[in-house]
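Have a close read of the entry that follows and walk me through the local backbone shapes. See right below:
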Amino acid sequence: MFAEYKYSVAERFLKYVRINTQSDPASVSQPSTSSQLDLSRLLVEELHELGISDAELDEWGYVYATIPSNSPNIVPVLCFCAHVDTSPDCSGESVRPLVHPNYDGRDIVLPDDNAQVISVGDHPYLAEKTGDDIITASGTTLLGADDKAGVAVIMDMVQFFSTHPELPHGAIRILFTPDEEIGRGVNKVDIEKLDADFGYTLDGGELGTYEDETFSADGVIITLDGVTAHPGYGKDKLVNAVKMAADLIASLPRDSFSPETTADREGFIHPVRISGTAEKAVIEFIIRDFHTRKLGDYENFLRDRMNDIAANYPGSSVKLEVEEQYRNMKEVIDQYPKVSENVREAITRSGIAVRNSSARGGTDGSRLSFMGLPCPNIFTGEMAFHGKQEYVSIQDMQKSVEVIVRLVMIWEEQSSGKSAQ
């Protein structure tokens, strides 16, 4: 069945990545950039062409669609979700995707900037992909595999079921979201309208990877207020908030607590943005750990550092604000063991090894899980996200399609004998 199927995932992916869909954290609109809607509108058109009559784009930039059940049994409704936006960390303008057929195992030098080399030394997973067809960008932009690989995988799954109407399955809900990369991916999702029992995001990396755990995450904003005075007459009067901010950043540990010094299950404190003048400076941080309780420890650490700095600047004032971003999905997923068991079975039936993994980040599924839709994450092959050396294997994407098709079929098999009549 899969050997004879003509996959469309690569062609779809190459089309989607050419559409600039970067999200913008400075924007207050939803979605944050109108260009994301260009891809979302295209997806609705393609879903209609595949016979999905209810596919729609709502006012907030979400695409909803349904593959109706054709099973005589009562089958849990599954949702497959991917995000259309790409990271604002690296340009997504005028992406030029390149296919490297039958990859030979050597370093890949990107032609539009020879300084960009996707080396096996820096990307050890690439060594496993010898013989695969690898897609990269050209060297001046990100590729957009995060998460247009997931979008393309889901769309190819829709095509698979449209060309195999004989395969019994339950109802399948499709959800494409904007603004995941800036933490707003499910802000306006209508869970009642989605009306699914369990969900899966397609936003993971290496072949066979299954993630049922993510970081828990908070955002922290520290505001430092100085005292302004004419610099020519500022002696014993001027309190410079920019210097306060610089001291605070310099006081952070250099050998721990940061993304560049942590791995595996270690959390971190990460300053992501700084702005200000002598009168007022603002520092934005993200705080991450697999244990939710540890977030408070990191926030107290920052609060102590902030207060220590302020004590050195008489007349200044400081403030720390915390905003919850998302929580470790494992706290929810573990309550529904079939959600994980069925994915592992689908991966195994696809002839590949399961790689259980914990995501050092979050997905839309992190928040969806706490909104009542248990929603772990499945691989697509996307690698080296958010940078110019991003790449994806076409064969990995095809296997991802096979896995989620098999996953749908497994859920239906388990409902055999539970009549919907």
